[in-house]
Write a structure and sequence with these properties.
- The protein has eleven helices and eight strands.
- It has 260 residues and is of the alpha/beta class.
- The longest helix is centred in the C-terminal third of the chain and has 20 residues.
- It is globular and about 45 Å long.
- The protein binds 5-iodo-2'-deoxyuridine-5'-monophosphate.
- The site of 5-iodo-2'-deoxyuridine-5'-monophosphate (5IU) has 18 residues, from strand 8 and helix 10.
């Protein structure tokens, strides 16, 4: 059977990468294929959101460099919340430079991403060296990398042969655990897909974001995890109520895919 037809639990049992094993186990236990995109600009907001929404998500996705009062204590507290709620941390760095440069960006600087983010991602525009550079830092720490095979925004340029190259590089590099994109890309070594641009509240935003439904993304396209931001914490929203609603929608879409 294709991976889309298997349960998350079964895929976790069979998976070769310890991080993905843990991810699938968490998804099954929390009955959640929902990742929160927590794009908020203060430490207090980020911690409050992570704590209230934590019970309903499998992955907390951050852009740590948008937090204006970032400090080392934020990382400590985020790690404690990830442990409390049993979810993985994903910093959406979208690295895009030479292997040697991304090694420095990933392992060092003030954010020290590799020290705390279980997952990060990169563009393969520089060629395979970017994966090798990130792997030198992340592999020894048991981290995992997603390739940006597609984006969700209008007019994005990651299509066709470029997307296919992402898939080839992912298959060939053990540090890569999957993709950001809109669908399942390959049946090789159960590379996962996480999909941003998911929303039940709107069709998009004023800057090119385009929203699709969990049913489209999970049931029809075979993606594994939906990433939702403003649909959960946007203006006037009750974040807990919305997180529950998206978790339910994502999980129902997954059960529908299995034919349950
Ligand atoms: N994000 C996208 N689309 C992409 C990629 C990343 O939306 O193709 I790669 C990020 C941007 C933001 C989150 O952090 O996912 C989506 O947030 P909203 O649900 O608020 O649009």
């Amino acid at each position: 059977a294709s991976f889309s037809q298997k349960t998350y639990a079964q895929r976790g049992e069979e998976h070769a990468h310890p991080l993905v094993k843990a991810l699938f186990a968490t998804m099954e236990r929390k009955q959640s294929n929902l990742s929160l995109a927590a794009d908020v600009s203060s430490k207090a907001e980020l911690l409050a959101l992570a704590d209230t929404v934590g019970p309903y998500i499998c992955v907390l996705k951050t852009h740590i460099d948008v937090v204006s009062d970032f400090d080392a204590d934020l990382v400590k507290q985020l790690q404690a919340l990830a442990a409390k709620h049993v979810c993985l941390s994903f910093d959406d760095c979208k690295f895009g430079d030479l292997g040697n440069t991304v090694k420095l960006q990933y392992g060092g600087g003030i954010y020290r991403i590799a020290d705390w983010a279980h997952i990060t991602n990169c563009h393969v525009i520089p060629g395979e060296g970017i994966i090798q550079g990130l792997a030198e830092v992340g592999m020894p720490k048991g981290r995992g990398l997603l390739l940006l095979a597609e984006m969700s925004s209008a007019g994005m340029l990651a299509t066709g042969a470029y997307t296919d190259k992402n898939v080839e590089m992912a298959i060939a590099n053990d540090f890569v655990i999957g993709f950001i994109g809109s669908r399942r890309f390959t049946e090789e070594r159960d590379l996962i897909t996480m999909t941003p641009g998911v929303g039940l509240h709107a069709s998009g935003d004023a800057l090119g974001q385009q929203y699709r439904t969990p049913k489209k993304i999970v049931t029809e396209n075979g993606s594994d995890i939906i990433i939702v931001g403003r649909g959960i914490y946007g203006p006037g929203k009750d974040a807990v109520a919305e997180a529950k609603r998206y978790r339910e929608a994502g999980w129902t879409a997954y059960l529908d895919r299995l034919g349950h």
